[in-house]
Design brief:
The structure holds 2 protein chains of 2 kinds. Chain A is built from 21 helices and 2 strands. Chain A is globular. In chain A, strand 1 and strand 2 form a beta hairpin. In chain A, strands 1-2 form a two-stranded antiparallel sheet. Chain A starts with 7 loop residues before the first helix and ends with a helix. In chain A, helix 4 packs antiparallel against helix 6 and helix 7 packs antiparallel against helix 9. Chain A has one domain. By secondary structure, chain B is mostly helical. Chain B contains 20 helices and 4 strands. In chain B, the strands form 2 sheets. A two-stranded antiparallel sheet of chain B has the order 1-2. Chain B has a two-stranded antiparallel ribbon with strand order 3-4. In chain B, helix 3 runs parallel beside helix 14, helix 13 runs antiparallel to helix 14 and helix 16 packs across helix 19. The model of chain B has no long low-confidence stretch (mean pLDDT 89). The chains are: A mainly alpha, B mainly alpha. Chains A and B meet through strand 1, helix 5, helix 6 and helix 7 of A and helix 17, helix 18 and helix 20 of B.
């Protein structure tokens, strides 16, 4: 079956579901039950994290294909199997999900009502997200991809802020509409190839004229999820209104689903269309980087500012993916991980302020560095990483993307790189407004610095930011094989003669 | 002797129904309804077992034919009728309409449905059709002191009579041109094609059947009848007769009219598209949950017919899977509607559900599961029903139909979502009465089946595939 002889991916995927069931069936709705629910959720998420680390240690980075493969008959009669597997691309996205779920659960101190349902929804979300990254059959992938909506809709709508209902419905309708087009594309490819096995589909030979339509369908689904400009309008509302743990999961993990979709489906399956749409995607990416950075600068609310910065970074990721170079794609993937960790840190910082009863309007904040030095240091670190300071994780991803883009087009590289400068602008504005500005309401002085629980949330994230920044190759060496294979296949698909020549020359 | 065994389920229900009727009349006890209802449930359960033990047979010189296909459809009818009867026990009592005749009428309607499903001749088709309809007209007007219920019964009766007339007229035309009413013989006659007169007949038959499954544009009775009838009766209307009529639809189209595919295919496409569109658009403005479910069921019939359009065994299989999943989702959703009671009064407004999730999390969760499943969100069963239908239609080259289906799904997701929004996000205190054990049970079974279908979809799909093969011969 696989190198462990054990369906470990399914175990990692469905263990949180068991946890969700246990949490949901707890009795009582008082403080004690809430505490118990949180503990159970935390224990389950930590167990699967450990299993995930074990998978990482057993992972063989030299193999480009899927590992830990599981195959079981599923939808009989229409040739769909239950297939799970990871490669270097999905491994770290799964690890990211596994690492951030316990942190998000820790960050849920603000959830006071219907706590049991909340933790059940969080665990359900973890199951769906991991399943989505680990699925290697298209129908299975689609099931998980859509199912993510269910817990997230409830998390935003039940526990969100003032405009939560609007945000939740917008989030749901946008993503659902996008994914149904993807369903259409799936069914088309299914009819064309007779299989939904993603490993087979990646090497499919789809006629070029059909590719354009399929690409647009995928763009509708993944573009919405990845919040590519101009499909991003649901994002600031959803990020702004979701409760802190929901925002963490949305920004750090769910937004990666879109980029992952592009990387996994659009680029390998539709090489001609991807190449044809390359300029469009570059333009969209550059617009996101520059225009959204300015929009971020104009925000008056800390959470919304971070949300827009997240859209800007998604632009960098899109540029990287569509360079079709090893550097660009590795940079995009690295940026996905880095952005996940950094944005989680930033939203936790925002959550720390709200937990102390303050609003996130920038005009109400200021001078926090005086009473909360550790908090200030943490916010500073994540902000610096967000703007891509060398030594932090943000730098590696951005520089790789810029190098990759430089190989393709100087202007894209320049304008994409401009994002780093603009990132500095709004990041510094944010830091100044929150930490340093003179204006100081007296009650801000009463705020206490980090509690033990907040340390346990922020320290691992800070350590990860530094680890990714200082020693990136412990991650990149796992991407190398699959991404090199991807880029090679892409070049071969575009220039069949050249690929043939390369093979014969060998 | 084999004939007799194949007939046993229907005979058993008929004789059992008579015995229960006598029991209900003669019993001295003041309230015989629960006893009669449980007796009827037991009869249905035994009949379901009997129907699986019976061999394939051609009965009464070709009037009825049983096969795996009929057993599949019969089982759905039994399942739906049992669920509706369980729901009725407590609801009818609380609404003070608990009459022991109701379960007996349901039994007779079920016999009608079984005759419909196994019909192999236009005459037996019509008899089954009428037996079923007459019993159901009375059921609709069960709350005879309520103006709404009486109106629903009358409306259903008048429009139903019209549909029966159309059907009968179509049958007479078909008979007049083909010279036979037997399905197999008709199939042979139409092998060589058919003239205009026959086609007109086929269209009338199709209209009569479309009326019964409330497919657009013959759907106008459904919202009013669903709303006016007592909820326990609506739960029956939305499930068992739909399953039976759809099975009949499939067996007529794939049986005697199989060689006229070219003629009726376009009609079914139009009916499917209209049903999906009306189901999606008209439901948006509804504030009554029963009307909303009525429009939703119109939409579902559109999807179920999409499988038939292809005219292949795969398409029939997809339709059969769809209707099975639809039946389960529907009785689950109606169990939730039946549990909506405040201070001893049934409430039906969607806004009455506000705040339900905080007060009754289990109830709200089950309702949300049914709504999401009807919207076709994976991993719930409704998604697979739609996937199957889309897949077969797309494979057969009906791309436009599939695209319309997808757009209709997105639109309809909006109103299903609204129900969930009201339950989960809106503030309010529904203050619902305690859910009766029966409604809770049906809800739980439905939700369980809807959620866990994803784990083992194989058996149902395989069974539907075999049933489709049995139908196509």
């Amino acid at each position: 079956m696989n190198q462990l002889g054990f369906p470990i991916l399914s175990l990692i995927t469905f263990l949180p579901l068991l946890g969700a069931f246990m949490v949901a069936t707890l009795s009582g709705d008082d403080e004690k039950a809430a505490c118990k629910a949180r503990r159970i959720a935390l224990i389950f998420s930590l167990i699967v994290l450990m299993l995930g680390v074990y998978v990482w240690t057993q992972f063989n980075p030299a193999i480009a294909g899927y590992q830990f493969v599981e195959v079981m008959p599923w939808l009989s009669g229409i040739n769909v199997e239950y297939r799970m597997g990871v490669d270097g691309i999905s491994l770290f996205l799964i690890m990211l999900t596994l690492a951030l779920t316990p942190i998000a659960i820790l960050a849920s101190g603000g959830i006071k009502t219907r706590t049991r349902s909340f933790f059940a929804a969080m665990l359900l979300l973890e199951t769906m997200t991991i399943g989505m990254f680990a699925a290697t059959d298209f129908v299975l992938f689609y099931v998980f991809f859509e199912a993510v909506l269910l817990p997230m809709y409830l998390i935003i709508g039940v526990w969100g802020g003032e405009k939560r209902i609007y945000a939740a419905v917008k989030f749901f309708v946008f993503t659902l509409a996008g994914s149904l087009f993807m369903l259409l594309a799936v069914v088309w490819i299914w009819r064309h190839l007779g299989t939904t096995n993603m490993a087979v589909m990646a090497h499919a030979n789809i006629p070029a004229n059909a590719q354009t339509w399929l690409f647009l369908a995928f763009f509708a689904a993944f573009g919405v999820k990845a919040a590519v400009w101009p499909l991003h309008t649901w994002l600031p509302d959803a990020y702004g209104e979701a409760p802190v743990p929901g925002t963490i999961m949305l920004a750090a993990v769910l937004s990666k689903m879109g980029a992952y979709g592009f990387l996994r489906f659009a680029i390998p399956m539709l090489p001609q269309a991807s190449a044809a749409f390359e300029p469009v995607m570059f333009v969209l990416g550059v617009v996101a980087v520059i225009y959204i950075s300015y929009v971020a600068l104009a925000q008056t609310d800390m959470k919304r500012m971070i949300a827009y910065s997240s859209v800007a970074h998604m632009g960098v990721i899109i540029i990287g993916l569509f360079t079709f170079t090893v550097e660009g794609i590795e940079g995009a993937l690295f940026q996905m991980l880095s952005h996940g960790i950094v944005i989680a840190g930033l939203f936790i910082c925002a959550g720390i302020i709200t937990a102390r009863g303050e609003s996130l309007a920038l005009k109400n904040l200021g001078g926090l560095a005086r009473n909360m030095p550790v908090f200030a240091a943490a916010l500073m670190l994540f902000t610096l990483a967000n703007m891509g300071l060398p030594g932090t994780s943000g730098f590696i991803g951005e520089i790789l993307v810029i190098v990759g883009a430089l190989k393709v087009n100087f202007w894209v590289s320049l304008l994409g790189g401009a994002g780093m400068v603009l990132g500095v602008t709004y990041s510094l504005v944010l830091v100044r407004a929150v930490l340093f500005e003179k204006y100081n309401r007296p009650d801000l002085a009463a705020l206490k610095d980090l509690t033990a629980r907040e340390y346990t949330m922020l320290l691992p994230l800070a350590a990860l930011v530094m680890w990714l920044g200082v020693y990136p190759s412990s991650f990149t060496h796992a991407f190398d094989a699959p991404i090199a294979a991807l880029v090679q296949a892409h070049i071969a698909a575009l220039n069949p003669h050249m690929a043939l020549a390369m093979v014969t020359a060998k | 002797m084999t004939n007799f065994i194949s007939l046993l389920p229907a005979l058993f229900l008929g004789v059992g129904g008579m015995v229960l009727l006598l029991g209900g009349v003669l019993a001295k006890a003041s309230d015989t309804t629960p006893g009669v209802t449980f007796g009827a449930i037991a009869l249905l359960a035994v009949a379901a077992v009997l129907c699986w033990m019976a061999p394939d047979a051609l009965l009464f010189g070709g009037l009825l034919k049983t096969s795996l296909f009929t057993r599949y459809a019969d089982s759905l009818v039994y399942l739906a009728a049992i669920a509706a009867l369980i729901l009725s026990v407590d609801y009818n009592k609380r609404e003070k309409i608990a009459r022991f005749e109701y379960p007996i009428l349901v039994l007779f309607a079920v016999i009608g449905m079984i005759v419909m499903i196994s019909a192999a001749d236009m005459m037996s088709l019509y008899i089954g059709f009428e037996l079923q309809s007459l019993a159901l007209y009375i059921c609709a007007a069960m709350a005879r002191d309520s103006v709404r219920s009486t109106e629903a019964g009358l409306k259903y009766f008048v429009l139903g009579a019209l549909a029966s007339g159309l059907l009968l007229y179509g049958i007479s035309l078909v008979y007049g041109f083909a010279g036979t009413t037997n399905f197999a013989a008709l199939g042979d006659v139409f092998r060589a094609g058919a003239g205009t007169g026959t086609i007109v007949g086929v269209v009338f038959v199709l209209t009569g059947l479309a009326f019964k499954i409330s497919a657009a544009p013959f759907h106008m009775w459904a919202p009013d009848v669903y709303e006016g009838s007592p909820s326990s009766v609506t739960a029956l209307f939305a499930t068992a007769p739909k399953a039976a009529a759809l099975a009949l639809f499939l067996s007529v189209m794939a049986g005697p009219f199989a060689h006229l595919t070219g003629q009726w295919e376009m009609l079914i496409q139009i009916v499917a598209v209209l049903s999906m569109a009306i189901g999606a658009l008209a439901a948006i403005g509804q504030s009554n949950i029963k009307r909303l479910l009525a429009y939703s069921s119109i939409g579902h019939m559109g999807y179920a017919l999409m499988g038939l359009v292809t005219g292949t065994a795969g398409g029939i299989q997809a339709s059969l899977v769809y209707i099975a999943i639809y039946v389960v989702m529907s009785f689950g959703a109606f169990a939730c509607v039946i549990a909506m009671r405040r201070n001893g009064q049934a409430v039906e407004k969607i806004s009455d559900l506000a705040g339900l999730a905080a007060e009754h999390p289990g109830f709200a969760f089950a309702f949300a599961v049914f709504m999401w499943s009807m919207a076709g969100i994976p991993p719930l069963a409704g998604f697979f029903a739609k996937l199957y239908v889309f897949y077969t239609a797309f494979n057969a080259g009906y791309d436009t139909l599939v695209i319309i289906g997808i757009i209709a799904s997105v639109i309809s997701a909006f109103y299903y979502l609204r129900v969930i929004k009201v339950m989960y996000f809106d503030k309010g205190q529904p203050g619902f009465d305690k859910t009766s054990a029966g409604a809770g049970f049906v809800m739980a079974v439905g939700a369980f089946a809807t959620i866990f279908f994803v784990v083992i979809p194989g058996p149902l799909m395989a069974l539907a595939g075999e049933a489709a093969k049995a139908l196509m011969g």
